[in-house]
UniProtKB/TrEMBL annotation:
Keywords: Signal. The keyword Signal applies. NCBIfam families: GGDEF, TRAP_S1. This is diguanylate cyclase. SMART domains: GGDEF (SM00267). It holds the Pfam family GGDEF. The lineage of its organism: Bacteria, Pseudomonadati, Pseudomonadota, Gammaproteobacteria, Aeromonadales. Residues 194-321 form the GGDEF domain. Residues 1-26 form the signal peptide. It comes from Oceanimonas smirnovii.
Amino acid sequence: MDYLSSLFQKAAMAVLWLCAAGVVQAQVPVLRISAENTVDHVQTKAIARFAAQLEQASNGRLKVRFYHGAKLFRDRDVIAALTTGKVDMAVPGMWQLDRYVPDAGLYMLPLFYGRPPEVHYRVRDGAIGREINRRIENNLNVVVPGRWLDLGYAHLYFTEQRISEHKQLTGLINRGRTEQMLAEEIHRYHRYGTSFGLIMLDVDHFKQVNDTCGHEVGDQVLCRLAKLMQEHTRLSDCPGRWGGEEFLILCPNTDLKGVQQLAEALRERIANEDFPVIGQRTCSFGVTVIGPGDNAKALLVRADEALYRAKSGGRNRVEVS
């Protein structure tokens, strides 16, 4: 740990990194770093500089291999890969860490409420930041050897109106509220036998939109997509923002055939939409329904697995699990 920490200091990067604890102890000769963004992204360039400086500072005692563009793992999969030793370092988005350490989102509150960066840094580098880092390390069995990577305002949403809930940015409920409603539907099923379906969808190649057209265009695409979901689902359905470019739709009183038909109709409608600046863009869908003994985790895992098959099967398709 002391050896690698000295290398990080020599690299002089202000970042948050997750580093598998086993790698630090074993001091393996090759350090694999995984990131999702493309080669031209500001985050990728920062990590590439860090990797080069780290290898140089090791004086030949460490080889660093940096894989960008999700060549090893996507952001949503990299934390699990890190904890199982399939990769040695990762730079996941905060919205991915929320699944494992819900309080990680506290880092964003100062900027979300319009406070200057200095306030954000005091949270990040103070007692709250240290406690969140401690929980990340304990919950995931990893090491956080440095600060969070500061991308400035690149990934923040802005509006001229004062907002009190995240849903006011896209018109959809946020992840926390979606999880609450999912729990309520599961309770109704186990108590009254009322079935429901789940649709998980993800925008295909969305990183290309942000990287080539900018995050403002990306935000416009997400807002338009949210409106399409509201317009082309039933009044009883509940679409919500799940994270990044991923969405979740709860479909009460629906069997597998019905939720599959709904997903297919929505897929076709989205594929024919002319989005701002970028034109046409597709989505991939994973579909499942609740069954005996199911809990939220089981449902979400099945939907995510179906979504993964849709992606790996060519995208712009619906898969059922």
